[in-house]
Write a structure and sequence with these properties.
By secondary structure, this protein is α/β, with parallel strands linked by helices. The chain is built from twelve helices and eleven strands. Helix 3 links the parallel strand 6 and strand 7. Helix 1 crosses helix 7, helix 7 packs across helix 8 and helix 8 packs across helix 9. InterPro entries: SsuA/THI5.
Length: 306
C-alpha cells in the first residue's frame, strides 16, 4: 500500500497591521506597492510618520511607519523603544539656487536666504553642504519652511535665493528659477536614509511580528520590481501625489531603493545625533546607545524566508 503524502500545513493568517507615512512622497513608493499588490495580509497606508507610532489619530496607532533617520533620532529621545527595521529608500538632496544672486559655488551662499525645514533632514543636509565651504548656518539667512510648504511662490516673489529640501519641492524650485538655476547635489556628502520603523512593543507581539516580517519581505520584492521597472514607481507616486508621471520621472533618479539596513546607518546617525544634540542643548547619545535603535532581526528573517 502506497504511503499517503503529508500535506504542508497552511500558514496562519497574517494579523492586520497599520502603516503610516507621508503618502505622496517618492520615498514611500515601495511601501505602497507592497501594501497594494504584494503583501498577502491587510496593511493599509495612512498619512503620518514616526509620531503615529506613539500618538493615535483618527486611523489609530501605527504598527510600522516610514520616515527619515533624522525623525527617528529626534523621536527616540522621548521614545527609546523606537526601532529602525529596514532602509526603504535613499534620497539624494540638492540645493537649488538663483545664479543671478551671485551664486556659482557653495561659498557664495554666505549671506544668502535659504529656504529649509529647521532641524529636519534637509537642515542637516544644508549643514553638511555649508561645511564643505567652511560655512555654518550662522553665515546664511535661514528662511524656515514646513515639509509641505510650496516654495514656488517664495522663489517667484524673490523671497529666497536658494532652496534646500527634498523632492518634489526641489524640482519645483528649479522650475521656478528656470534658466537662472544652479544646483549643488549632496552626492558623497549626505543622503536621506528613509527607513521603516516600529516599536519594541509591537515586535513583542508574536502575531504582529510575523506580519511585519512578511511585510518587510513584500517591501523587498516591491523594491526589486521598482528598480527593475521604474515606470511602476512613476505611476504609483503620480497617483498618490497628483504629480504628472513625467514630473515624477524627472525626479526619480534622486532616489534608490536598497531594501536592506544600509551598512553606514549607524555612522550617519552618530554624526547627525551630535548635530541635533548641540541644537537642542542636550547631551549627545553614545554610539552604543544609538545602536540599540537599529534592529536587523526582521530583515534577516525576511531574507532567510525569501
Amino acid at each position: 500500500m502506497q504511503a499517503s503524502k503529508r500535506s504542508k500545513p497552511e500558514p496562519a493568517p497574517l494579523a492586520p497591521i497599520k502603516v503610516f507615512g507621508v503618502v505622496p512622497l517618492v520615498e514611500i513608493a515601495p511601501i505602497h506597492l507592497a501594501s497594494e499588490q504584494i503583501y498577502k495580509g491587510e496593511a493599509p497606508v495612512f498619512l503620518g510618520g514616526i509620531p503615529s507610532l506613539f500618538t493615535a489619530n483618527a486611523n489609530g496607532l501605527a504598527d510600522v511607519s516610514g520616515n527619515a533617520e533624522n525623525v527617528a533620532l529626534r523621536a527616540s529621545v522621548d521614545h527609546p523603544d523606537l526601532r529602525i527595521i529596514l532602509t526603504v529608500t535613499e534620497g539624494l538632496y540638492r540645493i537649488v539656487a538663483r545664479r543671478s544672486a551671485g551664486i556659482t559655488k557653495i561659498a557664495d551662499l554666505e549671506g544668502k536666504r535659504i529656504a529649509v525645514m529647521p532641524d529636519g533632514s534637509s537642515d542637516f543636509f544644508l549643514h553638511k553642504m555649508l561645511k564643505t565651504a567652511n560655512l555654518t548656518a550662522a553665515d546664511v539667512v535661514i528662511v524656515p519652511i514646513a515639509y509641505n510648504t510650496p516654495v514656488t511662490p517664495m522663489v517667484a516673489a524673490r523671497e529666497v535665493d536658494a532652496v534646500a529640501t527634498w523632492e518634489p519641492e526641489s524640482e519645483r524650485a528649479a522650475e521656478a528659477f528656470g534658466a537662472d538655476t544652479i544646483e549643488f547635489d549632496g552626492k558623497g556628502i549626505y543622503r536621506e536614509v528613509y527607513n521603516l520603523n516600529t516599536t519594541t512593543g509591537v515586535l513583542a507581539d508574536p502575531a504582529k511580528r510575523a506580519s511585519i516580517v512578511a511585510y518587510v519581505r513584500a517591501i523587498i520584492e516591491a523594491s526589486r520590481r521598482i528598480t527593475a521597472d521604474p515606470k511602476i514607481g512613476y505611476s504609483i507616486v503620480a497617483a498618490k501625489s497628483g504629480l504628472g508621471p513625467e514630473f515624477v520621472a524627472n525626479i526619480w533618479h534622486h532616489h534608490t531603493f536598497p531594501a536592506v539596513i544600509v551598512p553606514d546607518l549607524l555612522d550617519v546617525m552618530v554624526e547627525e545625533e551630535a548635530w541635533l544634540a548641540a541644537k537642542s542643548e542636550r547631551p549627545a547619545r553614545t554610539r552604543e546607545q544609538l545602536a540599540t535603535l537599529i534592529d536587523d532581526s526582521i530583515v534577516r528573517e525576511a531574507l532567510k524566508e525569501d
